[in-house]
Amino acid sequence: MSRALLGLSLLLVCHITQAAKVLAPEEMERLILGTWKEEIRSDGVFVSGTSSYTPDSKVVHVGSMVAQGQELKFYFESRWRIEGNVLITEVLKSSFPEGVPAGSIERDTILSMSQDQWTYRDSDGMEVTAIRVSTD
Questions:
Q1: Main-chain dihedrals φ then ψ at residue 29, nearest 5 degrees
Q2: What are the tens digits of pLDDT across the range 24-54?
Q3: Which of 47, 54, 35, 50 is nearest to 116 (CA)?
Q4: Would you say the pTM of this structure is higher than 0.90?
């Protein structure tokens, strides 16, 4: 019985090691290309939109935020890069400069990434999962 338990333990350790495998920044840069949908609910605010990443290091965010029955549509153009496991975006154009002015920089820690989805922790500590919409 102890050999079976040892075998199962080794399989579990191997599985966990594979699941926790960190991707190289170059692989994440390849996987992130395309369009992703995100939805965030927090403190009575609902944010929904898409982010489209291109090979020339540009990303366009389009969506809306709803709070207290009011809807605010937004559009941002940013430049992106990945350093280690951190996605860094710098806003170039903003439809909401009062809240997100040009020059704003966001650093999101990439927790996992696959062809179909990726999860990150934003600078406020919130974990968000983006689902691929297309590979454009």
A1: -65, -35
A2: 999 999 999 999 999 999 889 999 999 999 9
A3: 35
A4: no
Q: From CA 111, how far away is CA 65, in angstroms rounded? A: 24
User: Is 118:130 a contact under the CB 8 Å cutoff?
Assistant: yes
Q: What does the DSSP 8-state code read for residue 23?
A: P
10 in helix, strand or coil?
Answer: helix
**Pairwise CA distance, residues 71 & 135, whole Å:** 29
Q: CA 97 to CA 16: how far, in whole Å?
A: 43
- Residues 92-116 as b/e (b if ≥16 CB within 10 A, e otherwise) read eebeeeeebeeeeebebebeebeee
Whether the Cβ atoms of residue 81 and residue 27 lie closer than 8 Å to each other:
no
Q: Quote the tokens at residue 112.
A: 């996992």
Tens digits of per-residue pLDDT, 95-109? 989 989 999 999 999
Q: Which amino acid is at 104?
A: S
Residue 101 has which token pair? 């002015």
Query: What are the tokens at 49?
Result: 């939109």
| Domain at 23-134: CATH code | 2.40.128.280
